[in-house]
Batch of 4 targets.
Target 1
Amino acid sequence: MIASLVEPYGALIVTAVIAILFVAFAREWRSPEVSAAVAVSVLLLLKIVSVDDVLGVMSNSAPITIAAMFVISASLVRTGALEAFARWVTAGAKLHPFRTFLLFLIAIAVMSAFMNNTPLVMLMIPVAVAMAREMEVSASKLLIPVSFAAILGGTMTLIGTSTNILVDSVAQRAGMAPFHIFEIAPLGLVVAVAGIIVMVLCRGLLPDRTTVSSLMSPEQSKKFVLEAVIEDNSPHVGKQARDVAAFNRADRQLIDVLRATFSLRRHLNDVVLQPGDVVVLRTSVAELLSMKEEGDLNVPESDHMQALGARSSSVVEVLITPTAGILGKTLRHLRLRRRYGVYPIALHRRGTNLADRLETAPLEVGDTLLMEGASEDMQRLVEDYDLLNVSQPSERGFRRGRAPIAIAVLIAVVFGAAMGLMEIAGLAVIGAATVLVARCVEVDEAVQAVDWRILGLIVAMLAIGVGMENVGLVETIVGAIAPHLALLSPLFALGVVYILSSALTEVVTNNAVAVIVTPVAIGLATSLGVDPRPFVVAVMFAASASFLTPIGYQTNTLVYSAGGYKFFDFVKIGAVMNVVVFIVSMVMIPMIWPF
């Protein structure tokens, strides 16, 4: 019944669903994978796609390949395979800043060609912050280049980014021959070189923003937290905590009041002190913390407090990663003080301090939290929830002895794909299984390393792609635009496809663009009587070339808050990057893949 009613309007309905979905992506009504899942649900209800269609998508090789590459990339991180490089660039930043900066970008681009961009950028953010400190420049001078170099490097091989794998999968479904792992390398190499030259020559377009991480050296961030109980005879009893002079000296700051183990921090301005309350003070004056032999503290008697203890604490900046275990949760719900003994100080999102929503804002990818606590407590929090300490490189215990195995597995996967021994999906699965068996990465770490949000989005978008096929939407779109482009050169049509893909990528997720635009590009090329391969390559590169905004590509989102950037900081240098990559692509694509 529903199918018969919907059938005459199928193409129109799917167009409307995709349009609304893209608006949802751009306006961020919900996370991309949730919005895409809702769109698939609508198509299921309207019988435009069947349950078998959706289940059939699960057999697509792209999500499997991407998940396996996430695991292999995690093995490189967990074994410390890149640790020596991080130490080298940090050490060389002070002596040879320009040369080190250039080699840093080149190395990121090369590494990004063979491992997932997101974990690589997460690993390099604290390295860039440490480099900036050594070079005595703002971290904002380095973090955008880190993201851009990873994006550029991802275009050099088929496994360099999930977008490449996804476009190849969609093209194969349309009947095209699969891409070789290094088929796009000549174009990707030229694009990467051109992009790095732009970043070096246009360094003046990079902003000089101040971040907590760039301001504070590890020594400067060190403070002490003192806990003291209010005694029965204390004159502070009955007073508002904020009004007590002893808590508001130059060498002390009140950060919390504990009553029966419950934190009153959210209502600190209204707290009236009672006997037994524990006040938590921040101080950097070591003399205040002179210890008795048994480990207690000497607090001046005039303060009428009995010291319970003190511990060294640090103020650090923590980045919410795509695989963080606290995504979507609030600080109020997490109760980090009770669980870890750390205190959230500020929450930054896209250049904005969410001071009034510190406790209630659901945490999102790219948010940065300013936290205070003992270094061991902070490290435990970071490890438990897979967060990123922006202030310094990871202190996790590396399995260094297994690093050669992780590197060998990656080389074997690349070599096997280059020699055509097996499809990339099969090689990637074997590689992932090998690093798990060799314990380069533990099973729970591997599960945490996979960005399930991206995989969910890809599966949902592939199902929407099936819906486009079922209603003939691709043919309808091609039939509408092909007559107008037939009078022009194939190069002009190629430019239109590239610009459309690039523009959409800046406002919606690149994987969604890949699934929607690739079949249209293939259909357009076929109707024009030319080889569709150059058009598919144009989509592949344009969907990855997201430099203009901080929301078009996940690595841009990660460095957005970490670098203290404003939205238009990306626009200034990103516009130049987009133009250069477009020109290089339009010149090189027809040379490598003739029409």
Target 2
Amino acid sequence: MTQQNDPKNRAPDELLCSLLLGFNCLFFTGLLAFMLMQPLKATFSNSDTDHGDAHAATEEGHSTDVHAAAGKVEAITQASAGQAAYALCATCHGAEGEGNAALNGPALAGQEPWYLKRQIHKFKDGIRGTHAGDIYGMQMRPMAMTLQSDEQIDAVAEYIASLPVVQPAATLGGDIAKGKAGYMLCQACHGADAEGNKAMNAPSLQALPDWYIVTQLKNYKSGVRGTHAKDIEGMQMRPMAMTIADEAAMANLAAYINSKATAK
């Protein structure tokens, strides 16, 4: 009996079968354990990924909120600075940028910031407001020089542009129908409705009072404006003004331009 159970005395085939059976048991046990672990691994992996994505999304959302808030604060700060800088301008141009004819201050409300900035710089640099015949320009130049930095100029221009436009009242009794015919040349730069065209360096004319339009046309025609060597846009405008026959034709033109104005 003892010899029969001794592994050394077993037949080779019986011993091989025993070894294969043991190996198979171990293999299938390991395979079963591996299969059972996969769902758990996927669960934990997805949980980590979801947590990471959620954290990243939270961080991104927080960053966006911070930038948006900073932008709002900057806009509010610029608006406040612009309003403060405009306090001096309001003396002649009105508290709401509506203008004051008695002080020769035209309406500015709603004008494009790029044009306002350009004209302020021209006054500061002596390109406007230095000709002996430009009485009102010389009145304006010292005011422009109180804005000592580009940031101040930007702020006041943006503030003026934000003011509501008021439709100008007619003061010269120009003929709208005749003015329409005369405006055909002007619309090439200033637009069919006098809305302006930045690409042509042409500002909106809609909210300008008729008396101011006529004054500036006369200045261009006489050389008071548009003759300075650095006034590129002014030199572009002067030949157009010189095609207008007389002051009555200018008043007609102003009346037509004013008819295109709408309160905003």
Target 3
Amino acid sequence: MVVRGRSREGCRRPVGSCWNAVFRWYLVFLVVACIFAGGPASAASRTVKLYFNGTLLNPAVAPYVDPTGRTMVPIRIIMESMKAQVDWIGGEQKVRIQHGGKVLEMWIGNKTARLNGRTLVMDTAPVLHQGTTMVPVRVIAENFGAQVDWEASSSSVRIWMPEPTSVQQVRVRGSYVNIRSGPSTAYDPPLLTVKQGTVLPVLGKVPGWYLVQLSDGRRGWISADWVEPVAVPPPSDGGGGGQKEEATSYVAVVGSKPVAVLAGPGPVYREVATAPAGSQLRVVGEEQGWIQVRLDTGLTGWVPATLVTLKPWKGDQEKDEGGSLRITGVQVKPLGEGVQVWVQGTQAFSYQSLRLYNPERLVWDIPGAVLDVPPDGREIPVGINGVARIRMSQFTPDTVRVVADLTTSLKFVVQEAPEGKGRIFFVEKPSLKNVVIVLDPGHGTDPDGRDPGAVGPGGTLEKDVNLAIALKLADLLRAEGAKVYLTREGETTPYRLAERAFYANELGADVFLSIHCNASLNPEVGGTSTYVYAPPGTELGQQREERLRLGRSIQSALVAALGLRDIGVLEANFSVLRNTKMPSALVEVAFISNPQEEKLLRDPAFQARAAEGILEGLRRYFSS
């Protein structure tokens, strides 16, 4: 469980009420600390119930909450409930778990584990408690796909592991039926409500509930009492009457807009590349409404199934006809504030492009081509206008790859080459000129009173850090031609919380960005996160892809600039996000409650890096 120290709605009450709330939180923290100060033995005296798919388990050793707040559970009874094989290797103090093609190895007292031979680091080490191996419950959720919930009212750990089912789709029978975050009506409020007749893909089942795939990539639970199975017809053979190929490969064809390729099957994963409109990506897997694709770099990623079209891939049959295309060189020259890259060939050619991050690269792949350039002429130093170098290679026997290594985010436009001899790519900075951006340094004194935000253990006030970063960012944006407005430029602001969003709406801003520092009751928690809000089925939901793209662009660039833990892009119903009409995001730069990160947040050099990281994220957003 992650306990957030405060709501990003802000503490909007009078000052005295705010301090009363803070004092109550502090008392809660002291009480919890006292309860668990005795370590596992004393913590175990507090009864914690353990449920698996709704059934109460009775382990010989009960779960407990350790002094760091981690819920420790007996691994064997849970994994055996999941029908996994559990082996204890006493000589190595090691537990070995096999389930669903995964092999997880953990050692007592060691935070390092191995999953299918890959090293991973846990935040809490397994322990032997009363002769039983206890592990942090999140290990189960993160590595075996279970859903783990903590029910504070009954001190219960509830583990949900959907079982396979022959039902592939269900249709809603009730007039309006709730979809919930867990398989019980206790999970309230619901994620959303669906109408009668809605058909939903089924991912699994627990007694009385189906786990279904939502159109926005999220998962949810729907009561089996209010749906009926839908018969799924067998795959079509394409209408030709012949037999279907047994081993057909597929490509995912991107639609009319670029698509972000993500690190995992869900909208909150970080962006690893951008696939341009019309590009074709080799399909290697599918999961819960997401398609796993392999880029020509060898990197794999995920795209929403709703944003691509699958078609059979016929390999060499799809090469350019004739196979006579030769790439004979690259001519590079500065042009204005950009760089002209003329990829010279014996004829005009089609291409596929990719945008890769960390480090920044633009990639052009030319199918059906042979590289006719001597090895010593395949790398061209540039070092101007954001382009470090141009590289060429025979990437596959029938594909030539041209790569522009970048020092910043750039975009490109393409035009025909003279006499059809290749193509010309003009690479330039995404223009922020005349882009209207509203920056909101979180907290400060508004008409309702003074709001310092979170306070670090060393006395650092969040409002001061937020303002320092925002002012630095404003200077950087104005230097690139953007029109920048701030909700406050000093201690005071004329705008209450919701009015900050209304101010951006009145200006007709292109982007709204709220800058904050995070906080937690646990001083060890740290990292960087970015929040967006665009619930499907609402007016804001029409901006969902844009808001997620903005959040991912800022998050990836900011993490690269600061080097802190990447918490990811999250969703939350914050006032400034739900009330803005344009794409908006709320950045949590670092945890002011973490003593090490508090020191960084006070450092002007760190504040400058944060501003530069956000600037780079905005460049990425406007370059796509």
Target 4
Amino acid sequence: MPPDDRILVATELRRTFSAGLGRGRVSAVDGVSLSVGAGESLGIVGESGCGKSTLARMLVGLERPDAGSITVAGRNLATARGRQRRELRRRIQMVFQDPYTSLDPRLTVGDIVAEPLVVHRTTGRADRAGRVAELLELVGLPADVVSRYPHQFSGGQRQRIGIARALALEPSVLVCDEPVSALDMSVQAQVVNLLRDLQQRTGVALVFIAHDLSVVRHVCDRVAVMYLGRLAESGDTDAVYDAPAHPYTQALLAAAPVIGRRRTARPPAGEPPSPIAPPPGCRFHPRCPLAAGPCDADRPDLRTVPVELAPPSPSTGSDRPAGFDPGGPDPAGSDAAGPGLARHRVACHHAEQALATPAG
């Protein structure tokens, strides 16, 4: 996408945390770059502990990166001060993972949804009730719930309240940190479909963080795969799912259940290495079936790999273009590679071999 169309750009973000006295530091996010365009949806997936939630908190300003930059509409979030920082914070809001702890139990629904309007002074007292009713209707809740408290609602209804609060300031980007993982299976699809519908109606861009690969494919235009604080692969959703070029991505997809398919591939052996002492070179190499040569010494950079895709079948209804922005500030990666081809970026020394020998 053209650089001017990018609402949110993160460049070389790094964040570490103390592991305790004398135990070193945990590298939660290490050199991650990505971008999101207006009205676009970007999925971020990976195993627990890969740094997804820390990345989300940095994007909305709840965590300060140790290094790197975050720009919102071309302005640096880290260096903004006063009124400018307040304005930038309005443009990017968050839907939290746990609807049970993200809502203040002492406040009514009306007060919860109206809180951003009060803090940012965007709506007068006389108009506030009408705006709250409008937001509740937008997420499928009746206006008469304003006087009730969070404990009187189900998990799915609480998440709808959280979404209404996040939309109160009409943000350009909505960061959703595993918004359905704490919900019952029966209501997960309802919340996911609500987010898709809201994106189409409001034009808000989504950063959708999840570990459920099927949900990400349903919601997102592009996807980025994280492993131990770094990006392993990023690109158009269809390209990454149909032709994964990183052994870790292949292992994730092979482990995901698919109705009617007998699983033929095994998940990678062993557990992820400690983020306190990550392995040198490619961080996936201790578990990778293709590890050889430079893998245990040289860190692979994200590089563009052209992938040939089959035409979308009528049953999938896919209307995604072949070209895409590869996920970082690299405008050259946004062009299509040619008829039937799509580009995506992979941090693997053996990406071509991985494409030739998929995991199953």
